[in-house]
Design goal:
Blueprint (H helix, E strand, L loop, with lengths): L5 E7 L9 H23 L6 E8 L5 E9 L7 H20 L9 H15 L2 E7 L9 E4 H18 L3 E16 L5 E7 L5 E6 L2 H7 L3 H5 L3 E12 L2 E13 L7 H4 L10 H10 L1
Parallel strand pairs: 8-10
Antiparallel strand pairs: 1-3, 1-4, 2-3, 4-5, 6-7, 6-9, 7-8, 9-10
Helix pairs in contact: 1-2, 1-3, 2-4, 3-4
Length: about 280
């Protein structure tokens, strides 16, 4: 058996134009491949992954379809059995997320995160993603649309919350100010949007951090100024911050960049044109 390509068809919903953005297209393909790689990694255990995924064809028709084909990492190894196992587990796991709230086999936290990204893009920017594998793996294509994505995101949250192990660690997070306010317990709360993943995080400030929040201007809030918050980070699960007990707040990029009028010196060439000025420099 020769490994068959997987067809990934991506349809855009952006303003009725059936042309996905570059970020949506490449991100969707990458996240699907990361699901395949993560499943194989979980299967392999201590063994080295055997598969490399390559784009082997792309249609020019609308909607756009890409072919992704598995190749062996080591040309001397037959990968037919590994390909079927990985694809069955990946496609079966994605389908299982549509129908239930049990964690699919080989869907580690890393794979779950990629699966959520795959569906989140369908909720915002893409109308549909259709994944068609060889019939020996699955008889019908896997269809990801808005309805499916909403269901999968709900099931994924239930799975992750059920398996979550809360923990704490000292550290910092960088992001952009969303709001500064007092909560119902009269605690100063800085709400920020994390720079890395866009998640909304609340930082509860006291002592020195409280005093630093007092110095934040209304214009900084309106403009979404960039800050770095230090303190005790409370995680709901691996990599997901519940909130921060802030001990220090550092404002970043608070000084405005110089304007063009401040940078440009109209007398720099002494009245010469650019060509005349450069010619003079070469002749000196």
């Amino acid at each position: 058996m020769t490994a068959k390509p997987i067809e990934v068809t991506i349809r855009s919903s952006d303003g009725g134009v059936d042309a996905p953005t570059v970020h949506d297209l490449l991100g969707q393909v990458e996240d699907f491949v990361r699901v395949l790689e993560g499943v194989e990694e979980a299967m392999a255990g201590d063994e080295k992954p055997a598969l490399i995924w390559r784009v082997t064809n792309a249609t020019k028709n609308s909607p756009l379809t890409l072919e992704i084909t598995p190749y062996p990492e080591d040309l001397a190894i037959n990968i037919d059995r590994r390909v079927v196992e990985v694809e069955r587990a990946a496609i079966g796991g994605l389908h299982a997320l549509q129908t239930g709230v049990a964690r699919p086999m080989y869907f580690t936290d890393k794979v779950m995160n990629r699966a959520r990204c795959l569906h989140a893009r369908v909720q915002n920017g893409l109308a549909e993603t259709v994944i068609k594998v060889d019939k020996a793996v699955a008889r019908s294509p896997l269809v990801l649309n808005r309805s499916v994505a909403d269901t999968v995101q709900k099931h994924a949250r239930l799975i992750e919350d059920k398996d979550a192990i809360p923990y704490k660690e000292l550290g910092s997070i960088e992001g952009f100010i969303a709001s500064v306010e007092l909560d119902g317990r009269h605690r100063a709360v800085l709400t920020l949007r994390a720079r890395i993943n866009g998640e909304i995080v609340k930082a509860f400030a006291r002592d020195r951090a409280f005093q630093q929040l007092e110095r934040i201007k209304l214009g900084d809030v309106w403009s979404g100024a960039r800050v770095r918050v230090f303190g005790l980070l409370h995680f709901r699960r691996l990599g997901v911050i519940e909130h921060i007990d802030a001990t220090n707040v550092e404002m970043l990029d608070i000084e405005q960049l110089p304007s063009m009028d401040e940078i440009v010196d109209p007398t720099f060439t002494g009245g010469l044109t650019t060509e005349e000025f450069l010619e003079r420099l070469r002749n000196e």
